[in-house]
Amino acid sequence: MACFLVPTGEAIVVSAAQLMLHQREKKMALASRSEAIESKDAKKTAAWSEKIGWLNGMLWGGAFLLALEHIWHGEVRAYWPFLTAMDNAADTATMLHEMLTVGVTMALAVTAVWGVMVLLYWFLVEKKAGAPELKPETK
Amino acid sequence: MTLIVCQIAALAAILLWYFKGRDRKWHLGLLALMYFGASLMWFVDACFDFFGSAHKFLEMEQYSFDSAGNLVVGSADLQAAFYQGASDARLGLLVVIAGLIVWAAAVLISDPLQVWRKRFKEKETRK
Predict the structure, then answer these.
(1) B38, A61: Cβ pair inside 8 Å?
(2) Which domain holds residue A97?
């Protein structure tokens, strides 16, 4: 009914976090300009903003394609309140229940898979390249 | 059916990214992430369908004959089941095409062959 709205909400939050992190990383790179940042090994590994970009791609892409499915099935329309399930209270309750169960599980599943991707990337790429830590860079 | 079509697209995009697109020039990673994310979401949806009331994870139909000897697929007749499957397949194709449109837009905006930039520079030098 509207389960795609939960991943969309997460995607908005994650996009804001990615933007903030990217700016912070940019500032840090400009401030330090250390050899580690300039070295080839450091360039081989992805920054945290880029890793969060993977989650963003999955969340925005998945939510967009899922929204198409809902439009196809006539559950979304072009005028207020946009969702046909909001026409009456019973359908709205069903929609909210679906968002809390299916939607939340979708968002959690995508986030969990992203976590596995980050772990695999750390294990297969960053560990070999000599990046020691598996946590966001802080000042 | 939509889940299967999307999973095939995700697998193709991941393989393409792995063998051809790891230089990030053509944004194949974006395409793979989009299809992979959508596949995961539909997979969760299918799990809820299966563990909920529907019990039809991959819509495996059971074929039987009714009293008049007509082929029956699950609880629906063959024609209804065919149209339902065809509708889901069409939706799957629409999803794949929509993903390709988003990817093409991302490629055109990033301009990996610098076609737009060259034209813009040419215009500026003419001025």
Answers:
(1) yes
(2) 5-129
